[in-house]
Design a protein that fits this description.
Helix content is 50%, strand content 19%. By secondary structure, the protein is α+β, with helices and mostly antiparallel strands.
Length: 667
């Protein structure tokens, strides 16, 4: 026993120790990963800040250079406007050399170069060349402050790249003065590789790197200098690489250059993708080293623990265990006078108290079991919990009746608290008749609590419930047949009235009633027979349900008359839209009958309002609306907003502002 206890306790301590090591190691590993991700984010932020700063300086340099040559263009315009002797080829060449530009062109209001320092340019019309499109608006502009700067344009004559600046002039025969500049004036500024300069200035460790990838081509623009000068993700190139990186969450771990690395991503304004990467090799090495140290510490601790535990068990536990073992054997042999006592004041003191309670509980076992067995029949199971010994007992049919799975059974059979909690949870699900649905059965549970004991019975009521439900189902099916139209399977008049009245009792201010009548339906019966007429009614019923797929009741009132009650209260404009679309829909769906027999639909509708009309009043309003729709020529609908109830063919003693009279055009 001594070796068993030591072995079990050492095993438990070892498992706990290793679990703690693993959990702690995972936490340390995750912290290291997060620290690496934060570092990569800082690197990206540093690179972005440097990029933005250099980009701003580059833009200022470009603006300054541009401003210098705009001023030169205005200076040339000033010279020419104030000294007509310069308006010659030679004069323009002198000014060109003075201002250090490549060419000077004077352009008239028709876009034609009238005078130029380059003789071959004279006569060219800029308005006829797409390369000069940026100057078209300037040529026609009347604003003397307008100007144009065109970088890296294609020269019309020799297709060489040049930059052009144009300004307005006040000279009578000219509209624009254009100067041409060497492409190199702005080229170095425009194409300066800022991101390359930024990355080459950032110091990184060997296992770290920042990569700049062109946002258009997917090619690598630049890399930090003191690490491996390649960036490859297997199976991803150019466009695929761009799409992959854009969707990849920052801080992901992926294979780069055939090594697992952490990557953080940032996209610059010009589309360039910055990727900060860090190899996980060192992180994993640190992680393994940390685990080894922890394991060595655990082994040393286990050795010390084993030595101390061996001494304590021998002195304070084993002797008392031997005495308790002897006393238990006497109790099992029927000696209820045995007294469980121990010599040392340890936790075994509580164990001896439990054993004494267990001994006493057996004295009342006969009375307890008699109560339970007295309530038994074929559909009854019994259970019993003895808290004093923390054990549970139940009849063989208890598990099958409640459908306990192995995990639940293992949990409750060795714990009175878990068993009682399980029973109480079942009791919480009971309905008003104290029925509990479990394992496909209806059961009732009667439980008793007496001091340190919890016991009771489980009674299977399934057969009684099934019998009652069978009777109830037959009644419901009979009622449904009574309220259903046999041809269309919609509600009939009685069923519709019953359901709508019940709804209106609970929602007196809601609902919309719509009555439908098939125009010229008699022709179908007369010419093709009643079976075809029945098919038409069935098709119309199906289309009605398909179109008004709302929370509603559908019914056939009789003959070719149908009705819908929509449970929602609709606005008038909304109902107009619904009915307009329905008229188009039903003509399309029943086009064969419409074309051959002029089958159409007349519709009358009423929306329930705050007056809280009864079912009969609401039906009357809808029926009058249908009558008005028929009177207007059929194949239309009418919404009875004015609550008209009159259905006479002639108006007698009507007031002048009678809405029905106006609607039907009755004089």
């Amino acid at each position: 026993m001594e070796q068993l206890l030591l072995r079990r306790m050492i095993q438990s301590f070892s498992i706990i120790g290793f679990v703690v090591i693993i959990i702690f190691s995972i936490i340390v590993y995750q912290l290291k990963i997060e620290d690496t991700r934060d570092k990569l984010a800082d690197m990206l932020n540093q690179a972005t800040a440097s990029y933005e700063e250099m980009k701003e300086k580059n833009e200022e340099k470009l603006a300054s250079n541009e401003n210098t040559y705009i001023k030169r263009a205005y200076a040339i315009a000033y010279f020419l406007e104030n000294d007509e002797s310069l308006l010659t080829k030679k004069g323009l060449q002198n000014i060109k050399d003075l201002m250090e530009v490549e060419a000077i062109h004077l352009i008239d209001k028709d876009g034609k170069i009238v005078l130029s320092s380059e003789e071959q340019s004279v006569g060219l019309n800029l308005l006829k060349h797409e390369q000069a499109k940026p100057f078209w608006d300037l040529i026609h502009s009347k604003n003397m402050d307008d100007y144009v700067v065109q970088y890296e344009a294609m020269n019309i004559l020799d297709s060489e790249k040049r930059s052009f600046i144009g300004v307005k002039t006040g000279m009578k025969d000219f509209s624009v003065i254009q100067i041409g500049l060497e492409d190199s004036v702005f080229k170095n500024i425009i194409h300066e590789d800022i991101i390359k300069k930024v990355l080459h200035r950032i110091p990184t460790l060997y296992e770290e790197a920042i990569v700049a990838i062109n946002g258009k081509t997917g090619e690598i623009d630049s890399l930090t200098v003191n690490n491996i000068q390649e960036f490859k993700i297997e199976g991803k190139q150019n466009g695929e690489l761009l799409a992959y990186l854009k969707e990849l969450p920052s801080g992901s771990m992926i294979k780069i250059n055939n090594e697992l690395q952490i990557i953080n991503i940032k996209i610059l304004d010009d589309g360039t993708i910055l990727c900060a990467i860090n190899k996980t090799t060192k992180i994993l090495a640190d992680f393994v080293y940390f685990i080894l140290l922890m394991c060595l510490g655990l082994v040393a601790l286990l050795c010390v623990y084993y030595f101390i535990l061996h001494k304590i068990l021998k002195k304070y536990v084993l002797n008392d265990f031997k005495k308790l073992e002897k006393d238990v054997e006497e109790l099992m042999q029927g000696n209820y006078d045995v007294d469980f006592k121990i010599h040392n004041q340890t936790e075994l003191q509580s164990f001896s108290i439990v054993l004494n309670h267990w001994k006493n509980s057996y004295r009342f076992k006969e009375l307890r079991m008699s109560r339970i067995i007295g309530a038994l029949d074929m559909h009854v199971a019994i259970f019993e919990c003895l808290y004093a010994i923390n054990n549970t007992f139940f009849s063989k049919n208890f598990v099958s009746m409640l459908g306990l799975d192995d995990a639940t059974l293992e949990k409750v059979k060795d714990s009175c608290e878990e068993f009682e909690r399980y029973i109480m949870k079942l009791l919480e699900t009971a309905d008003k008749n104290q029925l509990i649905y479990v394992n496909g059965k209806y059961v009732t549970i009667r439980s008793f609590k007496l001091d340190q004991e919890f016991y009771g019975v489980v009674i299977d009521k399934t057969e009684d419930i099934i019998a009652a439900d069978s009777i109830r189902t037959e009644l419901l099916e009979t009622k449904q047949l009574i309220n259903q139209d046999s041809l269309t399977h919609l509600l009939n008049r009685n069923g519709f009235e019953e359901y709508v009245k019940k709804f209106m009792e609970n929602h007196p201010k809601e609902g919309t009633m719509i009555i439908f009548d098939l125009d010229n339906f008699k022709k179908v019966n007369d010419e093709m027979g009643h079976p075809e007429g029945d098919r038409l009614l069935q098709e119309f019923a199906n289309r009605l349900q398909n179109y008004f797929a709302l929370d509603a009741y559908w019914a056939r009132l009789g003959g070719d008359e149908f009705v819908i009650f929509i449970k929602n209260k609709l606005e008038v404009d909304e109902l107009h839209t619904i009915l307009n679309n329905f008229m188009t829909y039903i003509r399309s769906e029943l086009y064969y009958y419409y074309k051959k027999f002029l089958i159409s639909t007349s519709v009358g509708a009423i929306i329930q309002d705050n007056h809280q009309y009864t079912y009969d009043e609401l039906y009357k309003f809808a029926d009058v609306a249908l009558y008005i729709a028929k009177h207007k020529g059929k194949n239309t609908y009418y919404i009875n907003q004015h609550h008209i109830t009159c259905m006479k063919d002639n108006c007698e003693y009507c007031k002048d502002d009678c809405e029905r009279k106006k609607m039907l055009g009755i004089l």
